[in-house]
Write a structure and sequence with these properties.
By secondary structure, this protein is mostly helical. It contains 15 helices and two strands. The longest helix has 21 residues. The chain starts with a helix and ends with a helix.
Amino acid sequence: MGSPTNWLSMMFFSSSIIKKNMKKNFIILIVIAVALTGFLYSRPKVVVKDEAKANRDKVSETKSDEKHSDDDGHNHEETSQAPKLSAEQEKQIAGIKQKLTSASDKNPLYEQIAQVFINANRYDSAAVYAEKIALTNPTTENWMRAGDIYYQAFTLSLRQENVSSYAEKTRVCYQKVLEKNPRQLQAKTNLAMTYVQSDSPMQAIMMLREVITEEPNFEPALMNLGVLSMQSGQYDKAADRFKQVIRINPKNVNALLGLGYSLIELKQKSQAKIIFEDLKKNVKEPTLLEEVNKALESLK
């Protein structure tokens, strides 16, 4: 479903274009990082305030904006960072849909279509077919997968109407999971984050706190609480959350980034510099390394 490295590259491409205000961009950077390294944990989406969304929209010209229809007759507008389908992918989907007309068990074919869309980073379309599978065979695993894919579409959506639509679809799927398995903490974590931009944003905080009450070392929930603390300017709380994640997983790059940026805001620049210098020694991904270097430049 796309490697964490690829999502990091995408994240840093977007953030490297928007460098007018260092304080705001530190937050935007780590927000997008946590959102897009997603399928490492089915990564939780984090809120991007109006300033961040406006900045992301500036690079939307690099995204595709097209409409396509699935065999259920619904139109799905693509607003993610995905490219158009290749001619070969279009041909694959057309061939599989042809088989659907006579198939007694459509789920294997729905899975094939979903996978083609996933390979093209077309998560909105892939989710439609994953949901069809879950509706036909409503296992916890199938609803979880549909929720994960809708969640990725939600994460990558640029338009508010699509954010709201995919958030609702995500909730439906994860609620099906939690009805059968209330201890599915990843489902609950991702579900929580769909409420951040809703009319009930505090519901996200409450649900995340419930997760860490049940499992104090659950990394995705801790990361999201850290990022949400950054969003609200509570950098001391954010730093504490990121430190907790690093104690659990010392190699969590996003937690290290978050801690470094939080320390800068807390005027603890010498400690932040140590973190970024260590990242510089160990990071191999080029665009990530570029951002680390920029952070170090800001500390001079």
